């Protein structure tokens, strides 16, 4: 290649990066869940949790800030929740990367569509319209 030629990302490169991003996100989140599960079992000495009766203290990791507080205090169930959160955010990271790749290609219609999809996901993660 000439030094004067500009290297651009082609569709094959972008698809390879997106596939690697999704694969890495799933593998990392799976590893976090496994580590959190092992820590949870070690801390609870294999005790079986009874899910027949709802106890509010089990829902302490229902918010993102609660999950981060639990991860900071090295609680196994919070680490499992963090791994699941990472799994949820993996496709969102793919959408953000796709928006940037469409910006590089100057395909503004798909940039707009990507932002609309990102807005729909953000609204639905924040409780949606039904609540």
Question: Which terms would index this structure?
Answer:
disordered N terminus; 69% helix; 4 helices; mainly alpha; 131 residues; elongated
Structure commentary:
Helices cover 69% and strands 0% of the residues. With 131 residues, the protein is mainly alpha-helical.
Annotate the secondary structure layout.
Layout: H1 11-44, H2 64-72, H3 76-104, H4 108-125
Briefly summarize what is shown.
By secondary structure, the protein is mainly alpha-helical.
Q: How many alpha or pi helices?
A: 4
Spatial gap, N to C terminus = 57 Å
Task: Give the averaged pLDDT, no decimals.
Answer: 81
What percentage of residues falls in helices of 4 or more residues?
A: 55-70%
Q: Outline the low-pLDDT stretches.
A: 1-6
Main beta sheet: none
Q: How many individual β-strands?
A: 0
The coarse silhouette is: elongated
